[in-house]
Amino acid sequence: MTAPKSPQKFIYIADDDEDDRMLFLDALMELDHPASVKEAQDGQELINALYDSIKQLPEIIFLDINMPGKSGFDCLKEIRTSQQDFKHIRVVMFSTSRNQANIDLSYELGADFYAVKPSSFQGLKDMLKRIFEIDWNSVPKNQHEFLLC
Questions:
Q1: Does the keyword Phosphoprotein apply (predicted)?
Q2: Mind listing the pLDDT tens digit for each residue in 104-147?
Q3: Number of compact structural domains in the chain
Q4: Which end of the chain has fewer surrounding CB within 10 Å, N or C?
């Protein structure tokens, strides 16, 4: 008897680098993890999409920091302070930067995790698998376990 697949997750990837978005999508496909993925090319596009689809919000947003217009930090701040029901959305800052100031600011602004983009495709798959296996209801927000690399 095969185990039932976990329910499909609805996630967003917001990153201005098309290659990074494509790698993300390819890694998800290879993981065979049931997910519906929407893409945003910049922060403003993400925020607009959240307000436009208030009845179907994502469970997780993977959010790049450095994007033109509205940065990942600007988006995170708006998501966490919005009067809309965005506070329950899990946000993973997803960046190549290991800068401690960026990590600290992400934590202070309310991100759930900070993930350093792996340098290999297999590393990306492994990281995504770890993130999708997190039991979000039992993970206390802890600065010591905030950084994923």
A1: yes
A2: 999 999 999 999 999 999 999 999 998 988 887 776 666 556 76
A3: 1
A4: N
